[in-house]
Structure formats: structure tokens, C-alpha cells
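Quick one, C-alpha cells below. Sequence please?
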């Protein structure tokens, strides 16, 4: 029983964290501010893709953990 509660607590923390990361990457993608010379430019679309990709991979790992826990 304790393992199930701990698992769902971890799922909640991961969901909140990933939602905040995706929100930040989405805002960065839409940013139109010019940076000073010499400051590296970030590509917002690729940052968003990497963020969503890691969120999906985290979901897959959590699903695998759930299957192993319920077995």
C-alpha cells in the first residue's frame, strides 16, 4: 500500500515539474527580445521539442514502473 501511495506522489511531482518546464519552454519559444552581441541565441522550437520529448520519456518510465509495481 505504501508503495502505491509513494508512486502516485512521485507521479504528481513529475506532472507538476514537467508542466512547469513545458510552460517555460513555450514562453521561450515566443520570445522576440533581441539579445546583446556575443550572447548565444537559443532556438525556442528545439528547446520545446526536447522538453516535450523528455516529458514523454518520463511518462513511459512511470508507466513501466506502474506495471512492475502492480505485478
Amino acid at each position: 500500500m505504501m508503495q502505491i501511495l509513494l508512486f502516485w506522489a512521485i507521479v504528481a511531482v513529475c506532472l507538476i515539474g514537467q508542466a512547469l518546464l513545458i510552460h517555460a519552454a513555450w514562453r521561450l519559444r515566443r520570445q522576440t527580445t533581441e539579445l546583446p552581441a556575443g550572447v548565444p541565441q537559443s532556438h525556442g522550437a528545439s528547446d520545446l521539442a526536447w522538453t516535450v520529448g523528455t516529458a514523454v520519456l518520463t511518462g513511459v518510465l512511470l508507466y513501466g514502473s506502474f506495471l512492475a509495481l502492480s505485478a
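The two ends are 13 Å apart (CA to CA). The helical segments are 2-29, 44-70.
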